Amino acid sequence: MTMSKTYEKKPSVVACELDGGSVLLDLDTSRYFGLNTVGLVVWEHLSMPQTIGQLCKIVETTFDVSEDICRPDLEQLMAQLLERKLVTSQVGSAV
Questions:
Q1: Coil, helix or strand at residue 45
Q2: Average pLDDT of 71-88?
Q3: How far is the C-alpha of 1 from the C-alpha of 93, rounded, in Å?
Q4: Rounded CA gap, 26 and 20, in Å?
Q5: Is residue 95's pLDDT more than 60?
Q6: Cα–Cα nearest to 46, from 72, 11, 93
Q7: 21 falls in which pLDDT band (50, 70, 90)?
Q8: Residue 20, by phi and psi: left (phi above 0), alpha (psi -120 to 50) or beta?
Q9: Pfam families from the xrefs (predicted)?
Q10: pLDDT at 20 over 80
């Protein structure tokens, strides 16, 4: 059994789509965070808990990129979203 970290967007964060991306607004802090098109696709899938692996499969399929390309970028994005408290994370067990 391995441990798996999941990410989920905070209910107090809303997204507004703009040309070429979107802006997240944390209603608790009134702080903004910009996302590009790939970031927006990831954000839309964070309504439910998702692992980096699950998100990577979505990005691979949507944008026709390899895991080698998308995984490091996703890890960086999720770290930024966590640092800004726009998402929550939990560590659980997976088979």
A1: coil
A2: 96
A3: 7
A4: 20
A5: no
A6: 11
A7: confident
A8: left
A9: PqqD (PF05402)
A10: no
List the domains of the chain with CATH numbers: 9-86 (1.10.10.1150)
List phi, psi (to 5°) of 20. Answer: 75, 10
Structure tokens at 37: 């098109």
Asked if 32 contacts 25 with a C-beta cutoff of 8 angstroms, the reply is yes
**What burial class does residue 82 get, using C-beta atoms within 10 Å of its C-beta: 0-12 exposed, 13-18 middle, 19+ buried?**
middle
Pairing of strands 21-26, 13-18: antiparallel
CB 42 within 8 A of CB 55: yes
Model confidence over 43-74: pLDDT tens digits?
999 999 999 999 999 999 999 999 999 999 99
* Nearest Cα residue to 7 out of 65, 71, 92, 66: 92
- Bridge partners for 64 per DSSP: none
Q: What's at 18, amino acid-wise?
A: L
